[in-house]
Write a structure and sequence with these properties.
Elements: E1 19-22, E2 27-30, E3 33-34, H1 35-41, H2 44-53, H3 59-71, H4 77-85, H5 92-107, H6 115-136, H7 150-159, H8 165-177, H9 185-195, H10 200-211, H11 219-230, H12 236-245, H13 263-275, H14 278-298, H15 308-318, H16 326-347
Antiparallel strand pairs: 1-2, 2-3
The structure holds coenzyme A.
Coenzyme A binds next to helix 15.
Length: 378
């Protein structure tokens, strides 16, 4: 019998020059640069340039990339009409997936995957999320602002007001930290789709579907649910004990690859300290401390640490995003990595087609329909 790598854990299916996770030491690099250095010193647009074009831009290259992104922000009318036709109560991730699909139909990402396709998809994502958010609140979408950066324009599209420098910078840092992360489930999905020589829009639609699940990108709103349900630091111990006794997973902890603290969580913690209300931050810190202690006591061999989602929730809450836009905002960021991986996959493509071990029956006798009955005799 073949060895089955359930969940493909530890299986290497491609090489990449985009990002590297050292799970044992808790390090993440994008194309050679430590994530902490990029989070502190670079903007989201610089990181997008790094991922798509392989190097950090000089000033002229950055200006060119920013101008192009700004030029692609306006959605085709057919995409806005599609979003308008959806129920106001739709799940935002379903709307993002549908919006990107409509963009693909309206615009056609035909021909070889290109950096321009990547830019169109990345520039459109905030417009799709914000158009839906405004429409469901009975407001018309506003026109994008070419004088704002990616993060600032996203916040502007949501509220119709130019955001503060502090909120823009906080969101920009979040977008930088989460732009790429090795061969996670959604990125792998994008590469599988690209490997069939489908188009970049389809790869992103598939990736959005994978990101939606709570074991991947769907966790941050659940972190906030947990923190709200705990309510105050004094309740944390009893609440966490009861949840673990029921066999539940604590949202925002544990990772398939990191067996040390996720370096993004470290940066996000200090960002959360600056963006969240003080009581909320104190609650989050107390819950984190207790959860880590309890997880280490209960599962000493598992090396469970805080993951990116825990403080992402606090940061996104702090910049004023509604809970159900947390995962769509993760997509606003991660589309950069998905599209970079599609470009990389196609540079040296081989159809991704794993195998499965058949465990069903063999040698059954075929019975024609008219003589077939699966019901037991009365
Ligand atoms: C992210 C995650 C899916 C990784 O899971 P994984 O690599 O498949 O690890 P496993 O599911 O095999 O878990 C290993 C063990 O740790 C436990 N564990 C993992 N994460 C846990 C958590 N957050 N809370 C409690 N226990 C956890 C599992 O119950 C399992 O214990 P067991 O072997 O005694 O049954 C998992 O840690 C999780 O569900 N976390 C909560 C959701 C979350 O924060 N998602 C965002 C990810 S960035």
């Amino acid at each position: 019998m073949a060895q089955i790598a359930k969940g493909l854990e530890g299986v290497v299916v491609s090489d990449t020059a985009l990002s590297h996770i050292d799970g044992e030491r808790g390090r993440l690099i994008y194309s050679g640069y430590d994530i902490a250095d990029l989070a502190h010193g670079a903007t989201f647009e610089e990181v997008a340039h790094l991922l798509w074009l392989g190097h950090l831009p000089d000033e002229a290259e950055l200006a060119e990339l920013k101008a192009k992104l700004a030029g692609f922000r306006e959605l085709p009318a057919a995409v806005v009409d599609t979003i308008r036709a959806l129920p106001k109560t739709a799940e935002p991730m379903d709307v993002v997936r549908t919006g990107v699909s409509a963009l693909g139909a309206a615009q056609r990402f035909s021909g070889p995957a290109s950096v321009e396709h990547a830019m169109v998809l990345t520039a459109s994502m905030p417009s799709i999320v914000a158009a839906f958010d405004r429409l469901r609140r009975g407001l018309e979408p506003v026109a994008p602002r070419s004088d704002l950066n990616h993060a600032g324009n996203y916040l502007y599209l949501l509220s119709g007001e130019v955001p503060s420098e502090q909120r823009t910078r906080a969101l920009d840092t979040y977008l930088t930290l989460t732009a790429d992360h090795g061969l996670n489930a959604s990125t792998f999905t994008a590469r599988v789709i690209a490997s069939t020589l489908s188009d970049m829009g389809s790869a992103v639609v598939g990736a959005i579907g994978a990101l939606k699940g709570p074991l991947h990108g769907g966790a941050p709103a659940l972190v906030l649910d947990m923190l709200r349900s705990i309510g105050k630091p004094e309740n944390a111990e009893a609440w966490l004990t009861a949840a673990l006794d029921r066999g539940e997973r604590l949202m925002g902890f544990g990772h398939r690859v990191y067996k040390a603290e996720d370096p993004r969580a470290r940066v996000l913690r200090s960002l959360a300290e600056r963006t969240s209300e003080i009581d909320f931050f104190k609650l989050a810190v107390r819950v984190e401390d207790l959860a880590l202690k309890m997880l280490h006591e209960r599962k000493p061999d598992r090396k469970l640490y805080t993951n990116v989602e825990f403080y992402s929730a606090a940061v996104m809450h702090g910049v004023g995003l509604p809970d159900d836009l947390f995962t769509p905002t993760f997509a606003v960021s991660r589309v950069t990595g998905w599209t970079a991986h599609v470009i990389e996959q196609l540079k040296d493509n081989r159809l991704i087609r794993p195998a499965s071990e058949y465990v069903g029956p063999v040698g059954l006798t075929f019975v024609p329909l008219e003589r077939r009955s699966t019901r037991a005799p009365a």
